[in-house]
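Discussion board: Methods & Data

I've been asked by a reviewer to show the raw model output for two of the constructs in my manuscript, not just the figures. I'm not sure how much to include, so I'm pasting the format here to get opinions. Each protein appears as its amino acid sequence followed by a line of discrete structure tokens. Is this the kind of thing reviewers expect to see in a supplement, or should I convert it first? Here is construct A:
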Amino acid sequence: MRSRLQKKGMTRRQFVAAGSLALGTVLSGCAARLPRSLETGQTPRKSFIDMHVHVAGIGTGETGCFVSERFRNSFFFLIDMWAAGVPHWRIEEAGDQLYVQKLLETVRESRTTARAVILALDGVYDAQGRLDREQTTLYVPNDYVLRLAREHGEFLPGVSIHPARRDAIEELDRVAEAGAVLVKWLPNTQRIDPAERRFLPFYRRLAHHRMPLLCHTGEEYALSAGDQRAGDPKRLLLALEEGVTVIAAHCGSLGEEGGRTYLEDFFGLLDRYSNLFGDISALTQINRRHTLSRLLDEEVMARLLHGSDYPLPFFPLASPLYFMGRISFSLSLRIQRIGNVLDRDVATKRGLGVPESIFTKAEEVLKPRLVAWSSSQGPGRRALCQGVANVSG
């Protein structure tokens, strides 16, 4: 099932040129008009679900979020908040609220994305199943994303539950009843080993609720990581055997073990499990730029979903100019000038040959939970959610 397409890299000179051009483009503040095929593809209205969107914060406005002191003082945190539209001098004042405000504006102004699955992130838990704040880098509570999704029809709630917490099953039942559309894990950072058999009851409960597990695969560098081997796709075998719908975030695009890449492991699992999918979030980033071409195989593409990994697809981490040779120079510049980061991510992927079926696949895979989410809302909210899904681009 591996793609027959060959990896295409960039010379150092091309890389430097691309970076310089992208910087010039960003600084120019120009807006470009793209061919309609890249703006809207074959879809006549904005209708996509971006199923990999992060929310974050430090707890302003009693959101319940927190970050570790080490991460709070890191350059990456400041860049992450800047990319999300939060200037560093306002983080302490209203960082959480400004983050959501900018995200909401970005989705509403998008020509392609109608709804975003916003992701909670549970913390690290000790041997007694208690939250270990000292070891937790970033914490975004489930109630926060559920509340945001209830308040804004553009959002869908993606919760996070560490399977070792004392009340993991009870919490899963609670959020399933509240209409959560998936559970998100970042095992490298949360210190979860998905292969532990003590998590069997949790997997069986996920399957019972028809709740997909969106699990980071591959190595992790954005947040602090424990054992990078936790991102090995093969560690998801137990969940797959129990019938859980597993979405391998990033398709194992970074890392290897025993001379075999995690991407190759992902391909091998696709052959064996029809309940395994992958998301293509972050694959326009410079450190993952060789992955997408290997995924554009007819059989593989049928199992892929679109996600952006917002707010990470920003320059210089992500740019169409890093794909010169596969996207023409002139088109790369025009895509780079798109102001909306979600639309720029979609246009870059379209320029690389990603078909419309991938952008619309989330609706199919998440369907049971989308129905549950709609049912959990009142009649007025159900109408609003349906209206957001059908809004014209």
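Construct B, same format:
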Amino acid sequence: MLPDVSEIKVEIPSRRCSADAIVSTTHISNSISVSGELNGSSLEYSCLKEDGSAESFGRVEFHLLNFVEYWGKRIHPKQGADCHTWTGRIDFEFDKWHITLDQFPNISELLKEAKATSGFAITHIGILRRKDNNLFSSKEAKEILEYLYWLFSFVKGNRCGYILPKGLSYSGVPLWEEWGAQIVTPAAHITTWFAHLYPFQCFELAQGFFSLWKDPDKQSWIRLAVNLYALSNPVLHDDVALINAQTALELLSYVALVEESSTKTPEEFKKLKGACERFEELAKWCCIPLSIPASLSKLNGCFPSASGPEAITTIRNSIMHPTKANREKRQAHSIYVVYEAWQLSMHYIELAILKLMGYSGPYHNRITNPSAFYPDLVPWAIQPNE
């Protein structure tokens, strides 16, 4: 009889590593089978030198779950393999690091199946190395992989994690491994700012993202902003998504206007008349027209003379402050009006984060180009702030 335990310690003697785990199911037949999950930790193995210190390595190989499909450089298989080629490789750099990311040739089928079951699929394999090809430690690798987790999550539009990172010597010998996973959103049909036909230009974002990430104070708002962006971008675009989106806009307004650009002092920011005026100032900083885009016909019909920030805050207030009068106002707005208010809020969030990162390239405009075939240029690249 197997003891009734919910917590166990997993040990791998050959790798000299262990971690706490929680048992979820136990099956007994000809053998005992136990399944569960790691308890807030990961299993990590490092090859040690004679002095007991961990070996450094030349590159890290990792895999991505549910990442985006894009049009990259053509990948040619090794000689003797299948002659099929596919446009699945992108390379990008930031600071002293170089990333090569290859999507699998059957990524469309993998994502289709994962989305059908709200599940997960390994869609890409990545290589992390230094630009000068020098060795680096597992501590450095974990720091950069954490940065990549948040970068890939912003690109994807929801939480997108890496799994099975492996530090390799120049000859390919494993010197460090980690078993664990971050929070990853199940596969779904999600809209994002990422222009799938222009991945190289879009990943120019990586340098600006990293420049801010290196500052611990700025790293804190980046994590919060990307998390709120992901929470605001669900499959079902309901009232909660709109509230989450405007929580993100509250954060981004203060960060952009007070902390990063010094457009406003903290005192001047406090004097702005509510969320509507703060969002209008953020839109101006991003060179976004204040008027509601013509493509949002339902929102325009309900608010013919209002600005975009005024329209979205009015609907948000009718949800957040549920007096009888506000409930009646919310009831008067169709789901199409609320959907367009949410889309406009997400548009503001994406552009605000992109500008904070110093990005000036193409992006998918979810408001005017829902097909995502032709990207737009970010507005401040066309009409810079005076």
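Answer (T.O., handling editor elsewhere):
This is acceptable in a supplement if you add a one-line summary per construct. For B, something like: The chain has 13 helices and 13 strands.
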